[in-house]
Write a structure and sequence with these properties.
Length: about 475
């Protein structure tokens, strides 16, 4: 739990960061205020690792550039019109922005940029109170005009201003609410949730690329399911990924099937656990997680109510792959990500034929061939897709997949061995030894294969010499 003593100690440590200290001293010497702002302050208070350093100052862009140039190995002013100067200081990339006091017209996300004179005025225009705190340096003073510390302690996401105004200024902040909820494990406070639900259609002024970026960041968090629930609860997800709420299929008293929406979220949680256990040092795999989230989106379109209470979803894998491809293209995902997600969805049912009866070696090879370089992701998706509460069925399916992975490994190892060839072929053997086709050629070939396996590649001259010595030794 966050305590004031812990928080002050962490802020003190942030102020002593070499990059922070270097810049703070330089700006103070030049007569300007300077502060670490936003995420780094929030994360320091929470005891989380701080990665990107953002700063704010009352200095104007020209002054910022003049101050940082002697301290940095590189500078860039692509954000100069917004008051932002970037630089590389002591090996770290930083951004320093003049206090802002922007206004919005409500028709686009582009603000009318104006520079402010106070840090408080800059902070109250930010997205959430927990991101609207600053650490003034070098004197180490916390600036918190909107109650961000209290919201950190409460685990609460709240906008600094009226949420209708905040989201009206920048609708992308609604998506960020879901992302920060997942990233921090915080609840979105009721008034903020209500504003998202009311203003969800304003997301339409946001470009698909921006929406895609926030969706990817959400999927990379430790608990994306938490954020997805926020999006579904408020209806915001209907504006850019309506296939997810469509998974909440109606169930009547005569036809029963599992809740596809809850199944998909459970599968996503299980996939993340598998991803971490199998690849603990790898970064979050947003592509895999998207495939798991979307793997059953073909079910609503393919559902058929059969007599006797059965429900079928024939070909939902193929239909879902097409739907996913179209949706990801609309969101401007790159071709590689789109192809991978569609392929995984199309293949995600293939394994269940194996569970029903052992495959031949050729069938296992075909499974590997069709998965290609996505085999590991397919392993995780297929395992995560088992969400049954029937322990016996779950154990049977897990054992079946253990078996198919074992067979894939064995066949792969055998095929690697099979691919190894001697450095000389049968024609070479006949030419060098002056013999005709027959058992002696086969014996020579086996000798050369053993030589290759034992000693690797030794070169054509050396291998010919060894072959002649072997032949002479046979008399």
């Amino acid at each position: 739990m966050l305590t004031m003593a812990d928080g002050l100690a962490r802020l003190g440590a942030l102020a002593e960061d070499p990059v922070v200290r270097t810049l703070a001293t330089a700006f103070a010497d030049a007569g300007f205020e300077f502060a670490v702002v936003g995420g780094p302050v929030r994360d320091a208070l929470l005891g989380r690792d701080t990665h990107d350093l953002d700063f704010t100052t009352d200095a104007r862009p020209d002054d910022i550039l003049r101050i940082v140039t002697p301290l940095s190995t590189a500078q860039w002013d692509i954000g100069r019109e917004f008051g932002t100067i970037g630089a590389r200081v002591r090996g770290e990339q930083v951004e320093i922005t003049t206090h802002r006091a922007d206004s919005y017209d409500g028709a686009t996300r582009k603000p009318t940029v104006s520079f402010g004179d106070t840090i408080d005025g800059d902070l109250v225009r930010r997205d959430f109170t927990v991101n609207a705190m600053a650490l003034r340096v070098p004197e180490v003073k916390l600036i918190d005009p909107t109650g961000g510390v209290e919201d950190l302690v409460a685990g609460r996401l709240r906008t600094p201003a009226d949420p209708a105004i905040s989201f009206g200024d920048d609708p992308l902040r609604m998506l960020r609410a879901a992302r920060f909820s997942a990233q921090l494990g915080f609840d979105v406070e009721p008034a903020t949730l209500a504003a998202i639900a009311e203003l969800r259609d304003t997301l339409r002024i946001v470009s698909p690329e921006r929406i895609q970026g926030e969706l990817v960041r959400l999927m990379q968090t430790d608990d994306p399911v938490r954020g997805i629930r926020v999006l579904v609860e408020t209806g915001l997800i209907d504006e850019f990924l309506p296939e997810i709420p469509a998974l909440r299929l109606e169930v009547d008293e005569h036809h029963h099937h599992k809740d596809v929406y809850e199944h998909s979220l459970t599968a996503l949680e299980q996939a993340i656990a598998l991803e971490r256990s199998r690849h603990p040092d790898a970064p979050a795999d947003a592509t895999l997680r998207l495939a798991v989230l979307l793997h059953d989106i073909g079910k609503p379109r393919t559902r058929k109510l059969e007599s006797g209470g059965a429900v079928t979803f024939h070909h939902h894998d193929v239909v879902g792959a097409r739907m996913a491809r179209k949706r990801l293209q609309t969101l401007r995902f790159d071709k590689e990500t789109t192809d991978v997600v569609a392929t995984l969805i199309e293949l995600h049912l293939r394994f269940f034929g194996y569970a029903e009866g052992a495959w031949t070696d050729s069938a296992v090879r075909r499974y590997v061939r069709d998965a290609g370089d996505q085999l590991e992701r397919l392993h995780i998706l297929t395992r995560a897709d088992v969400t049954t509460r029937n322990r016996r069925k779950a154990a049977r399916l897990a054992a079946a997949y253990d078996d198919i992975e074992r067979r894939i490994a064995e066949l792969s190892a055998q095929e690697e061995l099979d691919a190894i060839r001697p450095e000389l072929d049968g024609n070479d053997i006949q030419r060098i030894l002056g013999i005709r086709p027959g058992r002696e050629v086969g014996a020579a070939y086996k000798f050369l294969l053993d030589l290759r396996l034992d000693e690797g590649v030794i070169g054509p001259d050396a291998v010919e010499q060894r072959l002649r010595e072997w032949w002479a030794a046979r008399g």
